[in-house]
Amino acid sequence: MTNPRKIIIDTDPGQDDAVAILLALASPDEIEVLGITAVAGNVPLPLTQKNARIVCELAGKPDVPVYAGCDAPLARKLVTAEHVHGKTGLDGPTLPDPVMPLQDGHGVEFIIDTLRREPADSVTLCPLGPLTNIATALQTAPDIAPRIREIVLMGGAYFQVGNITPAAEFNIYVDPEAADIVFKSGVPITVMPLDVTHRALVTPDRNSAFRTLGNRVGQAVAEMTDFFERFDIEKYGSEGAPLHDPCVTAYLIRPDLFSGRHVNVEIETQGRLTTGMTVADWWGVSGRAPNATFMGNIDDDGFFALLNERLARL
Fold first, then answer.
1. Torsions phi, psi of 306, nearest 5?
2. Distances in Å between the alpha carbon of 43 and those of 4, 71, 89, 90?
3. Spatial distance between the Cα atoms of 188 and 259, rounded to a whole number of angstroms
4. CB atoms < 10 A from the CB of 153, how many?
5. Is position 85 annotated as part of the catalytic site?
6. Which of 63, 74, 68 is nearest to 13 (CA)?
7. Longest C-alpha distance within the chain, in Å?
8. Any residues with CB less than 8 A from the CB of 236 and at least 6 apart, and which?
9. CA–CA separation, 54 and 60 (whole Å)
10. pLDDT digits (tens, 9 = 90+) for 252-280
11. Is the CB of residue 26 less than 8 Å from the CB of residue 311?
12. First CA to last CA across the chain, in angstroms?
């Protein structure tokens, strides 16, 4: 049995972030969650740090340290997504306010301190929202970059283009300057773009499977996906809502569920129409050195089987 992979989850919950966190906390054999850092994104920071704690308590894991990180992008005004996730960010289920405390100290300092304390090449960063905290950590403490095992993130798009503008995916669009810093950091990066996450659709059958898990978590997840599904079906005409962020956690447990290419990815920060675009050199035409594994496909049935099996444990 190999040791579980040590991770820090950086997140802006968000219903799909919540499912990603639940999947990680349900998988202690594969994943050791060292802590969770909240960032402003889907909703402002006071809600994302609260939602992260709500989710830990829902999972029955109130001892996971949760830190508040950056409350605004590096160089821009915050853009949020209440239109998708509701005014709390976790609309759908009725969940109690958290009892567990928010940790003292800043999320960025927690990231830096953890990477300096743990053995080099042992900690994976898992950003599920805008990359503000990760970029701030890399800028503040350049010595941590070679210590990071990998950054596995949800963000960007290539063939699926954008979901917040015609060209940009939300997480990258909110803080493109931060994304630019992360993609230029030299750290090994694995990207779960919309190309993958739009294949991880919660169909009615998959949603009723959550509901029939027979525990509080299954019921809450079904109510969350019910809620944000109304937005996605109206927008994409698809048969259900994409579960974006859990693809990150699923990859850590079952990398064989995903396939992609090691390519060059550049972030557009200046574009008049394309700010926040992830320019992925899928066909290798730029001559620029590859800097990220950009996933292109997912075994969606295997993904949902894993999700159900794990959520049933909580």
1. -60, -45
2. 31, 10, 6, 10
3. 16
4. 27
5. no
6. 68
7. 53
8. 198
9. 10
10. 999 999 999 999 999 999 999 999 999 99
11. yes
12. 22
Average pLDDT for 75-96: 93
Residue tagged active-site, from 106, 198, 244, 262: 244
Please tell me whether residue 239 adopts helix, strand or coil conformation: coil
Burial class (CB in 10 A: 0-12, 13-18, 19+), 100: middle
Amino acid letter, residue 148: I
Which residues are 295's β-sheet partners? 260
Query: Token digits for 297?
Result: 């496909």
Which residues are within 8 A (CB) of 247 and not within 5 positions of it... i.e. 6 or more apart?
20, 154, 192, 196, 197, 200, 258, 295, 298, 303
Q: Identify the band that residue 98 occupies on the pLDDT scale cut at 50, 70 and 90.
A: very high
What residue ranges in 194-289 does DSSP mark as E strands? 201-202, 241-242, 258-263, 265-267, 278-280
Per the prediction, the chain carries an average pLDDT of 95
Please provide the size of the chain in residues.
314
Identify the three-state secondary structure at position 311.
helix
